[in-house]
Amino acid sequence: MTQEYFEVFRKEGLKEVSIITPDQFISLEDKEKYQYIIAMWFDMILRREMCDILDNMNLDCVTYIDDSVYMFPSSKVGKGCFVGHQSIISWNCIIGDHCYLAMTSLIGHDVVVGKNCITSPKVDMAGRVTVGENCRFFYKSGILPKVKVCDGITLGALSNITKDVNVPGDYVGSIARLIKPKSTDKNL
Questions:
Q1: Counting beta carbons within 10 angstroms of the beta carbon of residue 27, is it exposed (0 to 12), middle (13 to 18) or buried (19 or more)?
Q2: Does pTM top 0.90 for this prediction?
Q3: What is the enclosing helix (H) or strand (E) of 106?
Q4: Span 56-97, pLDDT tens digits
């Protein structure tokens, strides 16, 4: 967890919160005695490995939804998620486990986001969008309505997905195009 978010949890009254590295986490022998927040941004492979360890151990994962978030009662947020300040999650949405939605993320109606996905501030996903697992969306990127996005994509800042994406990789542009395919072995 980064120092910035460590302080957020301290302000919320969680006084016994500490930051540990992934190596320290992996070497813990009594993982079931703690609650965890996974806050790794750039290394999606390591992040996925950590989330898989938590899932395989069936550990209790904290979900944090900021008080300023507007979320319809018909929507569901998975375990181990973080939903940042002034985000909106519209009706009938499903946010998978271990997702990180940065402040001011906008999730339209009937959206499904797979597990371990990350948004930067001001990411917009229009209605009836389906996003696979292990995806990253950078600042002010967006997805148009009724679009399906496969596992393991990264969408660059100020980029927009306008049609279905079926190839894992890095996408950029006002009409996003693939600039770097990723190995389908790990979908990352």
A1: exposed
A2: no
A3: strand 106-107
A4: 877 777 788 999 999 999 999 999 899 999 999 999 999 999
**Rounded-to-integer distance, Cα 94 and Cα 54, Å:** 20
CB 78 within 8 A of CB 59: no
Give the whole-angstrom CA distance, residue 103 versus residue 8. 13
pLDDT tens for 140-162 read: 999 999 999 999 999 999 999 99
CA 187 to chain centre: 15
The one-letter code for the residue type at 38 is I
Residue-number span of the structural domain to which 17 is assigned: 3-56
Q: Are residues 78 and 111 in the same domain?
A: yes
Tokens representing 12 are 């919320």
The answer as to whether 51 is a domain residue is: yes
Q: 71 in a domain, yes or no? A: yes
Kind of pairing between the strands at 177-181 and 169-172: antiparallel
Domain count, the chain: 2
